[in-house]
Amino acid sequence: MSAETIVPHLFRSEYKKIIAVLCRNFGWDQLDQAEDIASETFLTAAQVWALKGPPPEPVAWLYTVAKNKARTFLKRQQVYQQKVVPALQHDEAPQTEIDLSADGIRDSQLRMIFAVCHPSLPMESQVALALRILCGFSISEIAMAFMTNTETISKRLYRAREKLRVMQVLPEVPSPEALPDRLEAVLQTIYLLFNEGYYSSCNNQLLQKDICYEAMQLCSQLLEYSVTAVPPAQALMALMCFHASRFDARLAGDDLVLYGDQDTSRWNQEFIRKGVFFLHHSARGEQLSRYHLEAGIAWWHTRPGDSPEKWQEILQRYTMLLELSYSPLVDLNRIYALAKVSGAKAGITAAREWIAGADYPPEVLRYYHLLLGTLFLESDTATAAEHLAIATSLAGTGTERSFLTRRYGFL
Amino acid sequence: MEEYLILMRLDLLTREAQPSPEQLQEYMKTYQQWVAGIQARQRFRGGKGLSTEGRVIRHRSEVTDGPFVEIKESLAGFITVAADSWEEALEMASQCPILDGDGNSVELRKVVTVPQS
């Protein structure tokens, strides 16, 4: 590989590791410094490799350069600490040995996950910060994923870092008492990260897939440690594996292939097998999490075709999911399953009750109209067309609008 | 290549051998039974039945969007998540004292429906 292709590639895989380790050395309050040094390391690599070509062991090369830059920084820091602020308190003296071994990296990354997925941060900040620091995405990639501009993302990241600083969040694995709650926040961030990739509105499919894989990677890191490999984490992994199995089948060029039209021979059986393995491991203890239920639903979707058993099981899981915590969107999906079990009429009645319940934001309303439109297709094409037209008008992106128009344009 | 990497990584975690089709069936059975067991115990303790009227955003419950196949992958195309206003509004609303109880929260929804500028 040439320097031009290898640098971005390594950036994605190594940037986050270097930051995690350096942060542990420098202390959390020096996150900016850690990021600067990691970025500088890649800048140096790009410059040197462009002239001389990449070295035989580019990763080791990066680590050496990062270490040297870090040592220089620490030395300067030490002088500052000794001469300028001798009284400065530090609960945890920064480590001086920069441990970029495989174990050192893994350990640092796990701590980093807990710091970034901190409950004091709003969800969107956690997801953005996770994309940046845990996954190594560039600001412009994150902006693309969130469909916003780089300035917004930069600001959001800045505020998130400030908040962590003010809250004195440390990159460490929480105490056993705090662990369950903190782990829940981590799982939720990973879940949203995956969702962001899987149903992202941005059209960059490479990026979408990458985001999903990064989410799976983070979850797999949790599964490597016995304290964090809790049943809900196993279930979340299963859930992601089941969905990931359809990555190739659901895309044809730039188009999305609907579930019913997918070539099921392209569903990745390897992912499905792994998913079942994790689901099996998740089935213990007394806590039935939403991930357990959603993974159960996702498993049924790895089985092609419709069967009464499939939809009854899915409906039951959705009902349980709603008992666990109510969400209008989950309810709409339940109604879809209900229609599969009890017929379109029952679905239409349930959907009408749903809409009478509250005011919904447009992004949820769109699904309501889409669902009703589909349920009416058989019996009343005029009403179906009305609902689908509203759904189309509520569609956020041009891509989606053209997709819906193409799909239902015959009406 | 990424796909290969993640599968490799998962291989490390599932190193207890590759399950056969029979084992996979067995695995799914364990899961189904476990869920049914928990459900039965909850029912026994008088746990909540299906509630379709509870159209409230409950205390502490996060409003999250999820990878739900039924509508998003079966009916719709790409979706747009207006995360900016939704999450930010949610954060503000979650600090509202009324949420300390199990109360309804129409206000929250109104905040949420403020269109993005």
TrEMBL record, chain A:
Q: Which domain of life is it from?
A: Bacteria
Biological process annotations from GO: DNA-templated transcription initiation
Residues forming the DUF6596 domain are: 182-282
The Gene Ontology terms for molecular function here are: DNA-binding transcription factor activity
Every copy of the RNA polymerase sigma-70 region domain together lies at 21-78
Q: Output the InterPro entries linked to this UniProt entry.
A: DUF6596 (IPR046531), RNA_pol_sigma-70_dom (IPR014284), RNA_pol_sigma70_r2 (IPR007627), RNA_pol_sigma_r2 (IPR013325), RNA_pol_sigma_r3/r4-like (IPR013324), WH-like_DNA-bd_sf (IPR036388)
**What Pfam families is this protein classified in?**
DUF6596, Sigma70_r2
UniProt cross-references to PANTHER family, sorted A to Z: BLL6612 PROTEIN, BLL6612 PROTEIN-RELATED
Annotated protein name in UniProt? Putative RNA polymerase ECF-type sigma factor
Q: Which organism is it from?
A: Flavihumibacter petaseus NBRC 106054
Automatic annotation (TrEMBL), chain B:
Q: Cross-referenced InterPro entries, in alphabetical order?
A: Dimeric_a/b-barrel (IPR011008), YCII (IPR005545)
* Domain YCII-related, residue spans: 17-101
Instruction: Report the family membership.
Output: Belongs to the YciI family.
Protein's name according to its UniProt entry: YCII-related domain-containing protein
Whose protein is this, by species?
A: Flavihumibacter petaseus NBRC 106054
